[in-house]
């Protein structure tokens, strides 16, 4: 990601007098042209970067320049490191970890113990519990396609199981609700679409380049209430007993529970009614039932009967 690279270059220039553009390009695995664009961005931010010509030349900071530590307070640095730790858990890869170590290296030795305590008081870990190798491999492909501005080809299966071959222009990676999505322009549909990473398979970075399109952050589809039209959202009520109360608290929060009688609780929430909702309700187990609406209660009942029939003696698909 560009912001990681810019911060890393600044820290590197603070530690070294001069460095060759080619060395920076090799270090961050980008072109020399990209490095010069980064240097221009750093200069526009007010940090005096100087390019020295001839033998022994390279890129460095103006003689005598030091980054004013008052720009970043101790709390600022703590928050940045915590943010990088969170980013490292979700995106992975060596670049974020390398930047994290470099940023931590500017902390004076006498303050490192206290700084370590402050940055481990609050940890955000977006990674899943199981093996994340497949997801990480997909993320690497998507990031590669975005950084090179090349289209991404993959096989996609939607929520109904329909399989299609896609070749899209990836613009943004979105982590929402512990799920990764790729926001990309689809030439076949002639519009931006949101693709769930877990439904993508065999992603390939093509040699076809594209020009990044302007995005309006006021109409991005992952904003609250925009993933699904409001007309598709239906209120429903679930009933939990004392054995399943913890599930209600985990999913909906303690405040959402209403105690109807001793050991019986209800939760009323709006959700779009689709295959995901049916699977979610069934996953809550036998200590949870649908109270309302009646048609959803009947739907879950019929699905439960079908599941039970699959386990009857001798039953095969």
From TrEMBL:
Residues annotated as domain HTH deoR-type: 2-57
Keyword tags: Transcription, Transcription regulation
InterPro entries to which the protein is assigned, alphabetical: CBASS_pafABC_assoc_protein, DeoR_HTH, HTH_11, PafC-like, WCX_dom, WH-like_DNA-bd_sf, WH_DNA-bd_sf, WYL_dom
Domain of life: Bacteria
Keyword Transcription found: yes
SUPFAM superfamilies in the cross-refs: Winged helix' DNA-binding domain (SSF46785)
Entry protein name: YafY family transcriptional regulator
Organism: Paenibacillus ottowii
């Amino acid at each position: 990601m560009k912001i990681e690279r810019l911060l890393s270059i600044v820290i590197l220039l603070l530690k070294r007098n001069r460095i060759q553009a080619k060395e920076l390009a090799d270090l961050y695995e980008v072109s020399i042209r990209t490095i010069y664009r980064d240097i221009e961005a750093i200069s526009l931010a007010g940090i005096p970067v100087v390019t020295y010509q001839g033998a022994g030349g390279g890129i460095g900071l103006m003689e005598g320049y030091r980054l004013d530590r008052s720009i970043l307070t101790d709390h600022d640095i703590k928050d940045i490191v915590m943010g990088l730790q969170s980013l490292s858990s979700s995106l992975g890869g060596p670049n974020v970890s390398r930047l994290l170590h470099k940023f931590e290296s500017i902390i004076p030795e006498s303050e490192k113990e206290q700084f370590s305590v402050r940055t481990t008081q609050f940890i955000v870990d977006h990674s899943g519990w199981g093996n994340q190798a497949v997801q990480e491999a997909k993320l690497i492909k998507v990031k590669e396609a975005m950084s090179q501005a090349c289209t991404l080809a993959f096989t996609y299966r939607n929520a109904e199981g329909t399989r299609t071959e896609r070749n899209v222009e990836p613009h943004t990676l979105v982590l929402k609700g512990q799920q990764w999505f790729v926001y990309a322009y689809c030439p076949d549909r002639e519009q931006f679409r949101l693709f769930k990473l877990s439904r993508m398979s065999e992603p390939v970075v093509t040699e076809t380049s594209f020009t990044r399109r302007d995005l309006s952050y006021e109409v991005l589809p992952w904003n609250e209430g925009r993933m699904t039209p409001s007309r598709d959202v239906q209120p429903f009520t679930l009933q939990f007993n004392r054995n399943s109360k913890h599930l209600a608290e985990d999913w909906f929060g303690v405040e959402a529970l209403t105690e109807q009688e001793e050991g019986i609780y209800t939760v009323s929430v709006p959700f779009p009614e689709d295959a995901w909702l049916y699977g979610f309700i069934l996953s809550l187990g036998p200590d949870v039932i649908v109270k309302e609406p009646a048609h959803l209660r009947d739907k879950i009942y019929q699905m439960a009967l079908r599941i039970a029939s699959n386990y009857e003696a001798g039953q095969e698909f």
